[in-house]
Design brief:
Chain lengths: ~170, ~525
């Protein structure tokens, strides 16, 4: 137990300030965070749905929970059921085999709800496009509020997208 | 040459890649007899796929790759255009089951007996339409009617089913797990996968070599370097070129960085699934440091598109190499301390030990490779020397020591990951200080009609890519093969003596790819 506690103390708090790219953007994000507090009372719940990704986007979504990004520190957390969620964070392309499940998850999410399409594939279909096996972009299957392109998008880009959706 | 005295003539594949021998079976019986001989010699089925060759040879072709002592034996079997049927191999290698069913869904060549349930076709296209046939057309407009699936039912008093998925509770890929349980005790798990099927193999057809590389790097994002290298090795063999020595070592450096990143993440997640959040934050912190250096040195946190046919898309200068060495020292030190904490944590070890166990006999029977196989004591690593096998460059000179553990449980799979991190750090240091001067990329002029097989030991296990070029030097057929094909059934076995709440931990200890096997 002692080595464990020593390690915790030595590691300290690593969480970084919210993403900054340009000063204007930083102000924007500060404003978005104020909005989160005001609108949501500091609680946003996200149900992540992989509707056909290569799993690259999931690696970066996982990184949102690491001590650096510390998503829960913003009052945002991932939940196990769409019924508990304010937002669906959907990676794609949406396969034909996942089309029905994604629609069901969307219908199960209570209104008002937000949908963020993640990754080049979620935004446009990406390298996989639309085919006999793929519906392409997420918006081909359910309505999308915000798109976060990238292959895969970085954790900072994801965080920006989530904040942008909340601000709508 | 011949293997096991079987009447199939083999010829060694050209180039400096993994040792692969190609042969052609005269008929289904010859193939079946060869498979029996491989099985008797403790070999394994590494991959199985099919292709439509009707425009070139008038029929279809079945490809089976077997893992033998010396490397891989790639056997093709020509099938007629009418009624293309071959003998069921699942009775010899159970791993053939899902591959055969996928091959029937995609190409329309079928086994003469055995499990005839569809695998990748869930109802998005009709049973008599096959996307990999040249005359299939676009086929995007079929009604998408999800079909019922005949799960094996378990009966008896108190037995009931828990269906899970395709959308799971965590941040994870989709798939369906059907648990048959009594109380909390697991009697049976049956997986239904294919939800990630996005038509990858058809997308390869007609692409040029460079476009194919981009797609290969997105078969399973967590293994992008392994796939990019397997594909590049297959293309290089098909076209008769060899990448320069510096490029081979840079590829190895990227592959080992990919291995360390994934193992760090898995060890953190294993701690998390056993309620040790400390482990999660510590390992995720190290992983993030690792990915950030990737981003700084390679311009991409996962090094996508940095391994290309002919070599690598970038070179590393001296400051980059010393940054890598420095990071290896730091991470090595920290992981050593964390390993001690994991090893001595009674609560964690209580969850890890004896949970989700499989033994070496079962692993061999299932043709298992990679971390899960080595965690049963099997010495099987495409990078490492073993009896009768010499690894290809650059591994031969690096002298990779495979990590093994006899226990076969969650604890063993964690221990193998720890050991592999230390070994990868050693390899990274060696590569970084010993890079020879040479170009990092050469031209790969497409050779019409060429074909090749690439084999790479990815972090999860053995990744293969079979490539065939058409008469114009474009891709006629590419089959990327993920080790998860063989490992998913191992997970079904591993959970059988455990309880439902242990499933997430056991599942994480395998951490298999859905996308890689659903294609």
């Amino acid at each position: 137990m002692i080595p464990l506690i020593k390690r915790i103390l030595r590691t300290g708090i690593l969480s970084e300030p919210p993403p900054e790219a340009a000063p204007a953007e930083q102000r924007e994000i500060a404003r978005l965070q104020d909005d989160i507090l005001r609108i949501l009372g500091r609680a946003l719940t996200i149900r992540q749905v992989d509707a056909g990704s290569c799993n690259g986007c999931e690696l970066e979504i996982h990184a949102l929970n690491n001590p650096y990004t510390n998503l829960e520190g913003y009052g945002i957390k991932f939940v196990a059921s769409p019924r508990h969620a304010d937002m669906l964070l959907v990676t794609g392309p949406v396969t034909k085999n996942m089309e029905n499940a994604l629609k069901v998850a969307y219908d199960c999410t209570p209104d008002p709800k937000l949908v963020v399409a993640v990754g080049d594939c979620g935004c446009t279909g990406g390298v996989f496009g639309a085919s006999y096996a793929s519906c392409g972009a997420v918006e081909q299957v359910i309505p999308v509020d915000v798109r976060v392109p990238g292959c895969p998008p970085t954790p900072v880009a994801l965080l920006r997208g989530i904040l942008a959706a909340v601000n709508r | 040459m011949r293997f096991f005295g079987e009447p199939i003539e083999f010829e060694k594949q050209a180039g400096i890649g993994s040792p692969v021998w190609r042969g052609r079976a005269d008929g289904g019986e010859a193939l079946q007899s060869f498979a029996v001989a491989v099985h008797r010699a403790d070999g394994r089925l590494a991959a199985l796929w099919g292709g439509d060759e009707r425009l070139r040879s008038g029929g279809f072709r079945l490809h089976c790759v077997f893992g033998v002592d010396a490397g891989h034996a790639w056997v093709s079997l020509d099938l007629p255009a009418e009624n293309p049927v071959y003998p069921d191999l699942a009775g010899i290698f159970s791993a053939a089951n899902r591959m055969q069913r996928a091959t029937r869904d995609l190409v329309g060549i079928a086994t003469d007996s055995g499990d005839q349930r569809p695998w990748l076709r869930h109802g998005a296209w009709p049973a008599d339409w096959h996307p990999l046939r040249h005359d299939a057309g676009e086929g995007g407009n079929f009604p998408n009617a999800p079909s019922d699936y005949a799960f094996v039912q378990v009966g008896g008093e108190g037995a009931h089913e828990i269906p899970v998925g395709p959308i799971h509770a965590g941040i994870i890929e989709p798939g369906h797990f059907r648990f048959s349980v009594i109380g909390e005790r697991l009697l049976r798990l049956e997986q239904r996968l294919g939800y990630q099927h996005k038509g990858v193999e058809r997308l390869f057809i007609g692409k040029n070599i460079a476009e194919g590389a981009r797609l290969a790097g997105r078969v399973s994002g967590d293994s992008t370097c392994a796939y990019a290298w397997a594909y590049a090795a297959a293309v290089e063999s098909a076209c008769g070129v060899s990448p320069p020595p510096r490029a081979l070592l840079l590829r190895a450096l990227m592959l080992e960085r990919e291995r360390v990143a994934n193992h760090l993440g898995d060890l953190g997640a294993l701690g998390n699934d056993a309620a040790l959040a400390f482990g999660f934050s510590q390992f995720m912190r190290l992983k993030e440091d690792w990915l950030r250096l990737n981003g700084a040195l390679f311009g991409h946190r996962f090094m996508m598109d940095r391994i290309v046919p002919g070599g690598t898309a970038l070179d590393l200068e001296a400051p980059a190499l010393s940054a890598i060495v420095e990071q290896c020292d730091i991470v090595g030190r920290e992981v050593k301390q964390l390993k001690k904490i994991y090893d001595e944590h009674a609560g964690l070890q209580d969850r890890f030990l004896t949970t989700g166990a499989i033994d070496a006999d079962l692993a061999r029977e299932l043709s298992l490779t990679g971390v899960a196989a080595r965690a049963t004591g099997m010495i099987l690593d495409a990078r490492a020397h073993r009896q009768g096998y010499t690894p290809p460059p650059p591994w031969a000179m690096l002298g990779v020591r495979p990590a093994t553990d006899e226990r076969g449980d969650v604890a063993a799979r964690a221990a193998v990951r720890f050991a592999e991190i230390f070994e990868s750090l050693r390899l990274l240091r060696e590569i970084a200080v010993g890079l020879p001067d040479s170009a990092v990329c050469i031209e790969v002029p497409p050779l019409p009609g060429g074909c090749g097989l690439g084999v790479i030991e990815g972090w999860r296990g053995e990744v293969l890519a079979g490539v065939a070029l058409d008469g114009e030097g474009r891709l006629a057929r590419v089959h990327p093969h993920d080790p998860s094909w063989q490992a998913w059934p191992a997970l079904e076995h591993a959970v059988m003596r455990d309880i439902v709440p242990d499933f997430p931990l056991i599942n994480k200890s395998f951490n298999l790819s859905y996308s890689g096997a659903d294609l």
